Amino acid sequence: MEKTLTLSLVMLFLTLHLGLPEVRGRTEDPHADVNVKKRPPHASEAKSGRCSYTFIVPQQKLKGALCVSTAQETATANRSEVASLRVELARQQEHLETLRAQLEREGSQAMEVRALRTESNSLNTRITQLYAQLLHEVIDKKDQVLEQKRVESLLLNATTQALQVSSNFRELEKKYGALTSMITSQNQFIARLEKQCQCRNTTLASPVTPEPERLRSQEHHNISSEASATSNDVQRDQSGPPSQEDKLIGKATVPTITTASTPTDHPFISFPITKTPGPWRDCQHAMDSGETISGIYLLRPQGANRLLQAWCDQTRAQGGWTVIQRRQDGSVNFFRTWEQYKQGFGNLDGEYWLGLEHLYWLTKQIHYKLRVALEDWQGRQVYAEYDSFYIEPESDWYRLRLGEYQGNAGDSLSWHNNKAFTTLDRDKDGFSGNCAHFQKGGWWYHMCAHSNLNGVWYRGGHYRSRYQDGVYWAEFHGGSYSLKRVAMMIKPA
Ligand SMILES: [Ca+2]
After folding, report:
1. Element (H, E) at 491
2. CB atoms within 10 A of CB 282
3. Residue 175 · residue 225 · CB < 8 Å
């Protein structure tokens, strides 16, 4: 548009300067609607032969009509006007350019604003989401705090209980310590009395010789009776009155002592005292040598530099059985220390334990089998036999090695196979505590026992006790039935 306008002005200028007689009022641009009107000439103009034109141009942005005077002054004025117009045009163009640049700037700014607005919207959405999330988390946290408080309270309760249990445990431990020390002092007292008894017997009897004549019976001194009674009180079943049988008890010695005991007439095993040569390797050896009467025999296991005495059962199951343990009346306390289980204790003609060390040397000689004879309170007798039996040395805690079972009592010992021996003062069992404390006797405890022939001898069979501590064989009447008579014996297989 501006170009067209410029062109028109230039043409006008040229026309004026070149003195063209006429300018046709049409331009190339149809939009440039320029009307040129011919004015009738003046009389003076007609005289001088000159003509004048008035151009009327459409109103442009530039205000005012463009008048062209044919006069020289007018032409000069027009030129200056054109010049000013040009300046104005340039200014307008410049302004236009500025505006355009501004527009462009503003356009980009508008774009930026739009982008920012979009971003702001998305940020708002995100903030809303985050706020919702925060709210949720706050609620969760409140729940967690409540849960934590609950757990803390539980923990506090548990801690209080644990403290209480711990305090109870300490008290029990103290009581246990006191009881243990009492038992130890009692055992020491018993040992002292036994020693006094030995001295007394030695002075009363003729000098001891290693000959079999030592096996003759001797009357026991009051001290011996007293010692026995003391030891028996610890474990004797108090559930019933003492029988006549019990009153006869209390006149025996530990098996390794060279003095023999007065036999008592007993229905389970007859007690004749033998006067035999010896010592024998074991009861089978004595049997083979013609000693067919059951009684106390002097033995010396091969390879062992020690003499010992044992009860030989020469009648049961073809005879030749060396009795290593016997219970029959509760006259002997079996709740003993390691050393006592090692050396043996009790009365050879009554209840006794041969001693682990003797057992080790005996079973080391040749291949032995074990027979366990059991009798209940109704007089029913059963047995369990193991075709192989020996124990390891003390360095391996007299570990039990047992063969195959056969018999009619049921197998309640195989579970204890390969287990170390445990006593009150030496815990070698697989249980976290000491089985001997609960079962009140030494045994090859597992965790703890299917059989415990060294437990407490309870009268009458079924017994009431806090622990399963009777003389029991689980396969025969269960663990809460204390058997009347039991005996363990060995013989070469
Ligand atoms: Ca243990």
Report:
1. strand 485-492
2. 27
3. no
Contact 432, 411 (CB under 8 A): no
The predicted pLDDT at position 267 comes to 32
**295 sits in which H/E element:** strand 295-299
pTM, entire model: 0.50
Name 375's Cβ contacts closer than 8 Å, sequence gap at least 6: 268, 381, 382, 483, 484, 485, 486
Smallest CA-to-CA distance from 220 within 192, 242, 241, 198 is with 198
Taking the centre of ligand 1 as the mean of its atom positions, its distance from the CA of residue 424, in whole angstroms, is 10
Q: How far is ligand 1, taken at its centre, from the CA of residue 419, in Å?
A: 12
Q: Is 341 left (phi over 0), alpha (psi -120 to 50) or beta?
A: alpha
> From ligand 1's centre to the CA of 476, what distance in Å?
26
The Å distance, Cα 237 to ligand 1 centre, comes to 26
Mean pLDDT highest for which of 99-103, 160-164, 258-262, 423-427? 423-427
Cα 438 to averaged position of ligand 1 atoms, centre (Å): 11
d(CA 115, CA 125) in angstroms, rounded, equals 15
Tell me, in angstroms, the distance from the centre of ligand 1 to residue 371's CA.
27
Distance, CA of 28 to CA of 42 (rounded, Å): 31
The Å distance, Cα 427 to ligand 1 centre, comes to 5
- Tell me the CA distances in angstroms from 95 to 29, 86, 100, 106, 408, one per residue in order: 26, 13, 8, 16, 128
Residue pair 15/8 in contact by the 8 Å Cβ criterion: no
Q: How many angstroms does the Cα of residue 397 sit away from the middle of ligand 1?
A: 13
- Residue 316: both structure tokens together: 């049961």
Place of tokens 């020693």: 195
More confident residue, 148 or 22: 148
436 alpha carbon to ligand 1 midpoint, in Å?
9
Using pLDDT thresholds of 50, 70 and 90, give the confidence band for residue 181: confident
Average pLDDT over residues 81-105: 87
Whole-number Å distance, alpha carbon 432 to ligand 1 midpoint, is: 5
Q: Which two tokens stand for residue 7?
A: 């062109």
Q: State both tokens at 286.
A: 């004595």
- CA of 448 from ligand 1 middle (Å) equals 9
The predicted pLDDT at position 451 comes to: 97
**Residue 429 Cα, ligand 1 centroid: separation in angstroms?**
4
**CA proximity to 349, closest of 292, 283, 295:** 295
Give the amino acid at 332: V
Å from CA of 85 to ligand 1 middle: 122
C-alpha of residue 423 to centroid of ligand 1, in Å: 10
pLDDT digits (tens, 9 = 90+) for 325-357: 999 999 999 999 999 999 999 999 999 999 999
Instruction: Enumerate residues with CB within 5 Å of ligand 1 (an ion).
Output: 427, 429, 431
Region 156-172: what's the mean pLDDT?
Answer: 86
